[in-house]
Amino acid sequence: MEQEILELESFLPYRLYRLADAVSHEFSKIYKDRHGLTRPEWRTLAGLGQRGTMTATALGEQSAMHKTKVSRAVAELERRRWLTRTPDENDRRVEHLTLTKAGLAAYREMVPLAEAFERDLLGRLGAEDRAAIVRGVVALEGTLSAP
User: For residues 26-46, b (16+ Cβ closer than 10 Å) or e, as one string?
Assistant: First the structure.
């Protein structure tokens, strides 16, 4: 019996992973050069900038990061004085994380750079391909997040 071989280069999940990693790596050059941030630190900064106050658990869920990475990113941003931790009044095991003025300033500086990066990335495609990729991502997200 002939053994089947999976060709990773044509396997959609692998291709999506490689594409997401390549895009993330390219964008990371911007926040790394600007602020010396790692990917988890950027995702933590961005999550808090978008949502305001969050717990580490919520940050991990929102950014799909393991709790260890979230913990390290939080510790580094706190060391920089870019975020503060406030214990929950009802559960001392839970902390609410909030950006400081310095953290918020860094986030606000990064927002237009992130938007420009996205515009440039999508600008590499024609209008039809841009629309198709947005539709395809929305469709895949819808099928994977359905119960």
Answer: ebeebbeeebebebbbbbbbb
CB 70 within 8 A of CB 56: yes
Tokens 């949502």 sit on residue:
51
Run of H or E residues at 87: strand 83-87
CA–CA dist 140, 98 (Å, integer): 32
Phi, psi of 52 (to 5 degrees): 90, -95
With bands split at pLDDT 50, 70 and 90, how would you rate the model's confidence at 147? low
User: Two tokens at 111?
Assistant: 């927002």
Handedness of CA 58, 59, 65, 66 (dihedral sign): negative
Q: What does each C-alpha distance from 138 to 71, 83, 102 come to in angstroms?
A: 30, 32, 34
Instruction: Give the three-class secondary structure for 118.
Output: helix
- Express each pLDDT in 108-143 by its tens digit: 999 999 999 999 999 999 999 999 999 999 999 899
